Amino acid sequence: MSSTTIDHLKSVDRAALPEDGGDNFNRLIFEKSPYLLQHATNPVDWYPWGPEALQQATEKKRPLFLSIGYSTCHWCHVMAHESFEDREVAEVLQEGYIAVKVDREERPDLDQTFMTACQLLTGQGGWPLTVILTPDMHPFFAATYIPKEPRQGINGLIAILQQITKLWQEEPDRLISAGSNVAQEILAVTAAESRQPELSLAPVEAALRNYRKEYDAIHGGFGQAPKFPAAHTLSFLLLCGRHADTDKAREPGAMALHTLEAMRLGGLFDQVGLGFHRYSVDAFWRVPHFEKMLYDQAVLLDAYLDGWLTCGDPFFAETAREIRDYIAERLRLPNGGFACGEDADTEGGEGLFYLWTPEEARNVLPRDLHPAIQLCGMTEEGDLDGRSVPHLKGRPSDSEAKLLGQALPLLKEQRELRVAPHLDDKVLTGWNGLMVGALARAARLLNDETSLRLATASAAFIWDHLRSDEKRLMRRYREGQIAVPAFLEDYAFMAQGTLELFLATQDPVWIQQTHAYLKQVVALFSDQQGGYFDVGQDAEIVLQRGQTVIDGAHPSGGAVLARVFLRMGRLTGDTAWLDRGEKLLLRHSASLYRNPTAHPHWLQALHEWLYPGIDLVLAVPKTRAEAEMVGMLREFQQRDIQIQIREHQAPSPLKVMPRWQDKNCIDQRPTAWICTADRCLAPIVDPEELRQRLKSI
C-alpha cells in the first residue's frame, strides 16, 4: 500500500466508518503502528487492541482472534499474504470472531502474556503469534504461523477457525473452562518464587560450565543452527574474562572474542552496507535471517566495546564504529530518535536486497577490483537460489583491506538502486535507551564525538517528546503522536542510557534525568518485595502483572535495572540504590541459580555486586580541560573506570549525593579520590601517584 493511499485513507472521518469496516480499509487505518498499517487494507475486519474490540466480543458473545506480530517479521508477511489478504479467510473471521491485531513492539506486555499461553499450550512460541481468547481474555488456542490450507501435516487456518466456531456454538463451556485453566497457569508461572538466602558466585560458575559445553570451537557461538548473536551472553563472558587471573579462567573471554570475530567476518554482518542481521540460519554465520533490528545493533555495539576493553584489538573498536555508522545512516530519524529496524523482505522475497551473483558484481566493479568478488565469497553456486551473501573467510590483509575499501562502496552505491527494505520508523523508548547507552559508552571509551552527538540527540528527544503532560514516560512515538504507558524496560533502558551520558559528558542534566526515571520506577513498578513488575500500576493489566526475568533478544528490564541501581549507588554514594540492587538480585535469585544461562545480563549484575568496580572523583580548579590529571586518565579508559569530574565547590547535581560532598580541590590543585562501593581513599594531588595507584588496583 503506497504512502499516498494511506494518507488519503487517513483523511476519512473515523465516525463515518461502517461497523464492519470499509470496502478498501479497516479500523487499523487510524493507527500509527507501521505493522498495523500494513494490515489496514486487508479484507479482514481488524480491530486494534482496546476497549472497542473487547466490548464487541462481549456483546456479540464471540471469541477474540488475536494476531500478534511486527512489521519486519518475515513469517508475519507470509501469513498476511496467504490468509489475511484472502476474502475467504476474512469471511470466516467475520462470521465467528472479533479479529484483533497487535504490534508486539508497542505492546510487549500483551506479547509476553500470550506468548506464555502459547508455550503452555504448544511447548513453543514465535511470530506471528495466533491466539484465540474468550471474551474475558482467557486463551484456549494458540499457534504461530498457520498456512491457509493444510500443508505437511499442519492443519489449515480456515479449517481450524471453522472447527473452533462450531465448538464455540455447541460447547462454549468447554472452551471457557479451558481458557480459565490456561489463565490460571499463566498466573502460576508469574507467581512469586522462592529466593536464595544469599548471593554467591555459584550461578556464574554454573553458567560458565554450561557455556563451555555448548561452545562451538570451530565457528564460534553456542549450540547449532540457527545461531543468534546473544550479545549480552558475550558481554558476560568478556566481563568474567577481564576479571580472571589464570589462563583457564580467561577462557570465557577467548570464546567470546572468537565469536565476535566470526560474526563480523560472516554473512551475519552486512559487509556492503554495515550493521548486523537478526541471526544466522546456519552454524557458521554464513546465511542470515536478513532483518536488522535497532536493539540488536545496540547490544552488539556494547559487546564489541567489551571485546576492545578485554584485549585492546582495534578490530573490535572498528566494528563498534561500523555499527555506529550503520545506525546513523539507516536508522536515525530526522527528529533525533532511532527507528525500530529494517525488514528482511523486498519485492516479496527474503534478503533480495542483500544478495549478489558474481556477474552482478562484475558489472559494477572495474576489472582491477574483480578479485574482491572472490574475497567476498561470491560464487556461481551461491548461498540462496544461486545468489551469494557477501562474507569473508578471515581477516583481510592490508592489501585485501585496501581492495575491499575501493570495491564495497561501489557495490553499495549500486545496491541503493534496488528496492530498499521497509523501515519501521516508530520510535520506541526502551530500544532508543539501549542505543543511547551503547553510543554514550562508545563516546567515552573511544573518544568518539559522532557517537556522543547521536546519543545526546536521541536521549533529548525521548525526554522532550515521549513524556505525557504528567511527565509519565510513554512507549511509542510516531508522526507526532505518543502512545502506550512505558514499561519497566523503557524506564530501565533509558536510565542506563542517561547514566552512560553522564559518564561521557559529566553534564549534570543526565544524572538528574537518571534520577527522575528511577524515582518513577520505584513509584510505579515496585512489588514491595524487592522486585519490579513489567507493567506500571497505572497502566492496563491483562491477566497478570508479570516480572520478566529471562534475558531474551535484549536484556530484561529487571536485569538492566539491577545494574543501574548498583552503578547509581557507586556513583552517588547513596547506599539506598545499592540496597535496591541487592534486593532485586535476591528477589530473582532462585531463577539465576536454577537456569543461569537464561540470565546472562542478570549474571553481569550479580558479578558487579560481588566485585564492585572502581570509581574516581576528580575535583578540578575551573574546567576539566585545565587539569593534567584529566589527560592522564585517558590511559585507563580500557579499565572502564567510572569517572566523575566536578569543578571546585560546584553544587551537587542531586540533592542527595554523598560522594560529592566535601570533594574539592586541595590548595587549588586538581584532586582525585579513588572510591569503592562504600568508601573513598585519601585524596591524591600528584598525577604520578594517581597513575601508580590505579595501576596497582
Low-confidence stretches: 1-22
Q: Average pLDDT value?
A: 91
Q: Write down the CATH class of the largest domain.
A: Mainly Alpha
Residues in helix, %: 40-55%
Helical/strand content category: alpha+beta
Number of domains: 4
What is the CATH architecture descriptor of the largest domain? Alpha/alpha barrel
Gross geometry = globular
Sequence of strands across the biggest β-sheet: 1-3-2-4-5
Q: What is the number of beta strands?
A: 18
Computed over alpha carbons, the radius of gyration is 26 Å
Largest sheet: 5 strands, mixed
Can you tell me the CATH topology of the largest domain? Glycosyltransferase
| Number of helices in the DSSP assignment | 26
Strand content: 5-15%
C-alpha end-to-end distance: 61 Å
Describe this structure in words.
The N and C termini lie far apart (61 Å). With 697 residues, the chain is α+β, with helices and mostly antiparallel strands. The longest helix has 18 residues. The radius of gyration is 26 Å and the shape is globular. It is built from 26 helices and 18 strands. Helices cover 47% and strands 10% of the residues. The chain folds into four domains: 187 residues, Glutaredoxin; 325 residues, Glycosyltransferase; 64 residues, no CATH class; 82 residues, Glutaredoxin (3-Layer(aba) Sandwich), CATH 3.40.30. The N terminus is likely disordered.
